[in-house]
Amino acid sequence: MSQDFIQKWNIQLKKGVLLYLVMTAISKKNSYGGEIIANIKATTGIVITEGTLYPILKKLKEEYCVLSKWMVDEENDSAKKYYYLTGKGNGLLTEMNEKWKALNISVEQFIKL
């Protein structure tokens, strides 16, 4: 297979998991956009741009999974919009965790065949 094919496949693979990663990051700590990006990169090595993150956050807000509030960052005394999961968001993330684990087990079992 060509490198181009692998690169495109890798992009599609990441797209499928970004919403899950964003929700997981927010569930661990109420965060502002730059912090979400940095946490995902530090933990997974996956680079997310603001142009990718904010449409995801907008979609999550429209579905009432995430809410935001302006808070002052004490380190540099600037206001930042922090995102946090709603009850609905937490419930959906729990279900997503179960689906992810089941998919991971299924794929691992298939690979071992």
Question: Beta-sheet strand percentage?
Answer: 15-25%
What's the total number of strands?
3
**Number of helices in the DSSP assignment:** 4
Radius of gyration: 16 Å
Question: What strand order characterises the main sheet?
Answer: 1-3-2
Helix content: 55-70%
Average pLDDT confidence is 93
Query: CATH first level: which class?
Result: Mainly Alpha
The stretches of 5 or more residues where confidence is low (pLDDT under 50) are none
**CATH homology superfamily:** Winged helix-like DNA-binding domain superfamily/Winged helix DNA-binding domain
**Named CATH topology:** Arc Repressor Mutant, subunit A
The best one-word shape is globular
How far do the termini sit from each other? 22 Å
Oligomer type:
single chain
CATH architecture level-2 label: Orthogonal Bundle
SSE run = HEHHEEH
**Integer tally of domains:** 1
Structural category is alpha+beta
Largest sheet: 3 strands, antiparallel
